[in-house]
Amino acid sequence: MDNILEISGLNKKYSDFALKNISFCLPEGCITGFIGINGAGKTTTIRSILGLTNKISGNIKFFGTDMDGNENEIKDRIGIVLDEGCFYDELTLTEMKNVIAPAYKNWCEQDFIDYLERFSLNPKQKISTLSKGTRMKYALALALSHKAELLIMDEPTSGLDPLVRSQLLDILKDYMSKDGKGVFFSTHITSDLDKIADMLIMIHNGQIVFQEEKDQLLDSYRMIKGSTEELDESTRKYFLSIEENSFGFTGVTKQVSEVMARMQDVLAERPTLEDIMLANVEGGKKACYLA
Ligand code: ATP
Predict the structure, then answer these.
(1) What is the pLDDT of residues 147-169, one digit of tens each?
(2) pTM
(3) Ligand 1 neighbours (beta carbon < 6 A)
(4) CB of 158 within 8 A of CB of 185?
């Protein structure tokens, strides 16, 4: 499997935040979820990869070609859906499309018309009157109408209702059914990725925590439940996070065999992606994710 995107040694600095030596790759044919809590560095990474903000250092290769010096050729091959959706509010959907389409060599008007119909978008509607979900669908219609081989989306599901989110996931599955495609999708709503992601990359405090295939990732962690009497200094160290209450404890571990060998009366369950993400955040508490 070829890599559709390779990033190595990406560094970027704001006054109070830095991306530190980010390296990862996206294999072709995969939907890759880019996860992390608010402020972890997802948007900054995406903007740095796309050359929308200056990086200090790092090598970015799309389709085996360096981004530096080949930006136009590469951007022709990528569909981009950003959180803020850079549109002129006073234009209609068609007028805005007329501004954007000439930038792409492979623009396909028929694909655009088909997507407008599929998403029930009115080409005469003004951008300013679009709801958040409709605006995202419009951004997606634009991103998918120039034969893009890689779709990069920053938090496309945040603020969308469950129906629109599930429609988006169906569209992504359709898109991936053609050969040679890839999707890179940042989110802190991990339940969407439970359904469709093949690969997960987690970022925290500007650093990559892991890159792993979803099924392998879910297999390598366990959520352990038991009595707090089972917890002592020698067993606590096997957990990434532990929550205790009057009924007992719940902890997430990667050292499943060690835990099972030392704790006699506990239950081991498969965690969700959210459990794994939170366990890898300092403290592992839901409160810090939801804050
Ligand atoms: P969210 O899920 O909330 O969108 P994120 O993981 O996408 O978060 P970023 O938007 O990349 O996180 O922000 C990472 C950090 O960088 C934050 O602390 C943010 O305040 C800071 N940051 C982002 N943009 C700038 C900027 N233009 N100038 C200074 N600091 C910035």
Answers:
(1) 999 999 998 887 778 888 888 88
(2) 0.90
(3) 14-15, 17, 36, 38-44, 155, 188
(4) no
